[in-house]
């Protein structure tokens, strides 16, 4: 009998091979991954779903943000190999952050149920936020066996074989944004995501060495990866750019000094240097593009939520009062790009204000030093 057959035998002994781990991730790990997702996510593979893949982080010059995933991925792989008695090391086929906003759901399925998904042997879903606190709906169900229903709680992980012994579904999210770190593991080493990632990283490095100074400033992907059209949002007549939506949820408007008119190409504009405004104040800091401003703003909120004391330290930047013409430009931009915050993100904005209470009211500029903290992470070896 081959070793793989021995493994299969072991699994066969369990009718529904699955494992639930409570508090596998710390609160800090969940929050850091949430920060990465809220800074970098693109529209996902189904309506009302957003995703952040490792290859997307590399392609947008944000590969330093892959670092927090690596120890978590290793710990999970070890758990899976141990629990399912794998004789050979597994490879990670996919690692990604996936969030579901209002309207997202998935019916009964197994995770290897398409010819192009056959290489998926094991699934690990890590919950990064909590049912009843951060979102409503979104309960996970196994069709057969125990446990029947799982209410996602930040830090918990559900691990199961990707075949039909673990047919599952997820209820529709009715409020908020449900966030997971999802991984698939394979016995087939030709499906190792790292091989593809390393190629991508090498390409980027080669490109950089052509006399281009090293930079950790993000380069946004193509515009259609951030743009949610009404047909991608079920039951909602909304369209928006996810980057603008997330900035808006934090209470920011974007300010472009150039003149806008209806022939201006929005996708080109969003690549241009810009500033952030809050109410009647313009933040002094200039950002190289809208994705840069989103990463900085999300970084600030992540740290703000972590330590209220930090607010005193970071209120060192400059703000200026918006002039009448600047305010008009901001209002014009709203009309111009015709974006709205979808239900889920709106609720998020309300929650953030509730969590931070007075702090958000006194929010001032994000000091550029904070961004260098992010850059320094990139100096650690991958
Ligand atoms: O997020 C979950 O709880 C499970 C999601 C799922 O079933 C999938 O992505 O295949
Ligand atoms: Fe699934």
TrEMBL record:
InterPro entries: Oxoglu/Fe-dep_dioxygenase_dom, P3H, Pro_4_hyd_alph, Pro_4_hyd_alph_FE2OG_OXY. Residues 79-187 form the Fe2OG dioxygenase domain. Its cofactor is L-ascorbate; Fe cation. Gene3D superfamilies: q2cbj1_9rhob like domain (2.60.120.620). Keywords: Dioxygenase, Iron, Metal-binding, Oxidoreductase, Repeat. Its EC number is 1.14.11.7. This is procollagen-proline 3-dioxygenase.
């Amino acid at each position: 009998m081959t070793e793989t057959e021995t493994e299969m035998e072991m699994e066969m002994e369990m009718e529904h091979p699955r494992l639930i781990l409570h508090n596998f991730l710390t609160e800090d790990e969940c929050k850091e991954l949430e920060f990465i997702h809220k800074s970098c996510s693109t529209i996902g593979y189904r309506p009302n779903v957003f995703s952040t893949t490792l290859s997307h982080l590399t392609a947008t010059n944000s590969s330093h943000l892959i670092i927090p995933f690596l120890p978590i991925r290793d710990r999970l792989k070890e758990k899976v190999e141990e629990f399912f008695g794998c004789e050979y090391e597994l490879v990670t086929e996919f690692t990604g952050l996936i969030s579901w906003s209002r309207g997202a759901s998935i019916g009964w399925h197994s995770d290897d149920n398409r010819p192009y998904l056959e290489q998926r042997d094991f699934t690990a879903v890590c919950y990064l936020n909590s049912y009843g606190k951060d979102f409503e709906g979104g309960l996970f169900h196994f069709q057969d066996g125990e446990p029947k229903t799982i209410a996602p709680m930040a830090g918990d992980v559900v691990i199961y074989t990707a075949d039909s012994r673990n047919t599952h579904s997820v209820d529709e999210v009715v409020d908020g944004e449900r966030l997971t770190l999802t991984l698939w593991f394979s016995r087939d080493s030709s499906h190792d995501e790292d091989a593809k990632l390393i190629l991508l990283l090498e390409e980027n490095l080669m490109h950089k060495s052509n006399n281009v100074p090293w930079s950790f400033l993000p380069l946004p992907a193509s515009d259609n990866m951030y743009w949610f059209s009404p047909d991608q949002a079920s039951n909602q007549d909304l369209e928006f750019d996810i980057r603008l939506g997330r900035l808006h949820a934090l209470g920011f408007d974007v300010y472009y000094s150039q003149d806008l008119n209806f022939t201006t190409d929005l996708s080109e504009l969003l690549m241009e240097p810009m500033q952030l405004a809050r109410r009647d104040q313009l933040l002094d800091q200039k950002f190289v593009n809208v994705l840069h401003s989103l990463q900085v703003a999300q970084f600030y909120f992540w740290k703000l939520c972590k330590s209220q004391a930090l607010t005193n330290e970071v209120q060192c930047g400059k703000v200026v009062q918006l002039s009448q013409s600047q305010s008009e430009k901001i209002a014009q931009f709203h009309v111009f790009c015709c974006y709205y915050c979808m239900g889920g993100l709106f609720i998020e904005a309300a929650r953030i204000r509730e969590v931070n209470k007075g702090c958000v009211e006194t929010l001032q500029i994000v000091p550029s030093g904070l961004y260098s903290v992010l850059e320094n992470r990139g100096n650690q070896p991958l």
